[in-house]
Amino acid sequence: MTVEAKICGLSTAETVDAAVQGGARWVGFVTYPRSPRHISTDLLRTLGARVPKSVGRVGLFVDPDDALLDERLATGTIDMLQLHGSETPERVAELKARTGKPVMKVIKVARAEDVEEGIVTFAGVADRLMFESADGTLPGGNAKAFDWTILSGRKLLVPWMLAGGLTPGNVGEAVRVTGAPAVDVSSGVESSRGVKSIELIRAFLDRVKAL
How many domains would you assign to the chain? Predict the structure, then answer.
């Protein structure tokens, strides 16, 4: 099976280029000041302009207000919204209508019921779902994995992505257990917190391409 990959939390031209050249389907840019991966609007504009049309540019937000979204979207460098906060289905629908952008809603997973509830709540309104570990101090990028067997054998009617604690070393097993059609990595390709490694990005993407 072909597995697609997203490299999230990019903050330099060199790492954006490595993700694109390595075959990432999406690149992600963080808008959350508490995150070590947060970037300014000006840097978003600069980095997003480097990305070819064949690669999707994802803006990560945590309970964003309209003014923040307008500021970021005005750069013209966001193709999809990734919502990592406590956004409701109504807010997801509102943002889709307001921005005209597809939305990926992140479901925080600690137990099997979280997956069920997330699917019931958001599958009818979000364009994609992302299953991420609920463990950690930040909304994402905590290098924590959840029990992948929770997703084993599930057939979702909406596109979805696996995240949380993935690395070049374990992504193959993660996909084998979950059947994930797409994977997302941030901390798993960093040399230190918030600092992406070109070598690890390449290694992760090479591993995904081999699946």
Answer: 1
